[in-house]
Design a protein that fits this description.
six-stranded mixed sheet, single chain, 2 domains, four-stranded parallel sheet, globular, 366 residues, Rossmann fold
Length: 366
């Protein structure tokens, strides 16, 4: 009998349990779980929970382009600004990295039908990877989500459940459906496996640029990219491939800012939510909030909020000056970068990487 290459460890009480996509919480205290590997990292490739990478449920995700944004770097006073074009993934967003790992684990652990809730991109991604793995998916999403994302979910053959109200309403409806139907809740927000797929982005950065990147600025909602990339750099540090980890800065729209509020100590609650065009990060109660805060603070990074006007401004600016068409959720990061430079948090002359997480083709321009 093969021994799994990992176990799940509770982030709260440190109790361990066997690999599972069904168990989202610690059996001892109810805390969230993280993947813990039995072997140390070797630094060549990120550790992944599947024992055989060759059988992974892949659609060719990863190895996304890394593009120098020379005009924008000069305008902002940076030495260099690199855009990691995560929207050049199979379904048009960074979520494909996590979907590949999560659906592989689901398939290998015997899942045939599962439930997911999403603001759009994760639902579209998991629907595609479910189709590739022969799994039946039920995706709960806000009825107000961009039509392009909802169309993707349906064209991949998943059952789309459109829920009226804020993003949290889709989560509540999904959980009720799981309880009623006794199905597997393969939530990308709660599963410890989803963010494991994101680690490869850090490996790709280091392979391309070495230790050049000093800051990574990214939009944060449920935090899988932030958590996964920091974990990837931690593996590279442990394997002595890098000597230090870049500072990670999380950016949110002012309208929905639980992560930034937690990082900066501001008074904010989910009852203070306002409408925002940054729908991909409009998460008022992220379950891995503490883990996100730890990821930012452990790298000496920070959090910043941006205005609604800046989303459209930066979306158009990137497209017209750099040829990069990002969705508004992705434009958040560039608006945040500008604020961080103006505040002196990111020094002029620095080297910065911004993951461009989703394609502008998925949502209306207005």
């Amino acid at each position: 009998m093969n021994v799994p290459n990992h176990q799940l460890r509770c982030l709260n009480c440190s109790a361990t349990q066997a690999p599972s996509v069904c168990d989202l919480y610690c059996a001892q205290c109810g805390g969230l779980l993280a993947v813990e590997y039995r072997d140390p990292p070797h630094g060549a490739l990120p550790r992944l929970p599947m024992d055989d990478r060759s059988t992974a449920n892949s659609l060719g995700e990863g190895d996304t382009p890394l593009v120098s944004l020379g005009r924008t770097a000069e305008e902002l006073g940076l030495r260099s600004l690199w855009a990691k074009l995560e929207f050049m993934a199979p379904t048009g967003s960074f979520k494909d990295r996590g979907s590949a790992v999560l659906t592989t684990m689901g398939r290998d652990l015997g899942v045939t039908e599962f439930v997911e809730d999403s603001s759009g991109n994760a639902g579209a991604s998991l629907s595609a990877y479910a189709a590739a793995a022969g799994l039946e998916a039920h995706v709960f999403a806000p009825a107000s989500a961009a039509s392009g994302k909802l169309d993707q979910i349906q064209v991949f053959g998943a059952s789309l459940h459109k829920i009226e109200g804020p993003r949290q309403a889709a989560t509540d409806a999904a959980e009720a459906f799981v309880a009623d139907r006794k199905l597997v809740y393969m939530s990308h927000n709660l599963s410890p496996y989803f963010s494991e797929g994101m680690k490869a982005a850090s490996y790709e950065l280091v392979q391309a640029l070495g230790a050049e990147v000093e800051h990574v600025v990214l939009p944060v909602g449920n935090g899988s990219l932030l958590i996964g990339m920091v974990r990837g750099y931690q593996e590279l540090l442990e394997a002595r491939i890098v000597k230090q980890i870049p500072k990670f800065h999380g950016v949110q729209a002012y309208a929905v800012r639980p992560v930034v509020a937690a990082v900066t100590g501001d008074d904010w609650s989910h009852e203070d939510v306002l409408p925002t065009r940054a729908s991909g990060i409009a998460v008022s109660k992220p379950p891995r909030l503490a883990e996100m805060v730890e990821a930012i603070q452990s790298t000496n990074g920070t959090g910043v909020t941006v205005s609604e006007v800046s989303l459209t401004t930066w979306q158009k600016r990137l497209a017209s000056s750099e040829g990069v068409f990002a969705e508004k959720t992705s434009a958040v990061a560039f608006a945040g970068l500008e604020k961080l430079i103006d505040a002196g948090t990111i020094e002029r002359g620095a080297t910065v990487c911004v993951p461009v997480t989703g394609s502008g083709l998925k949502e209306p321009l207005s």
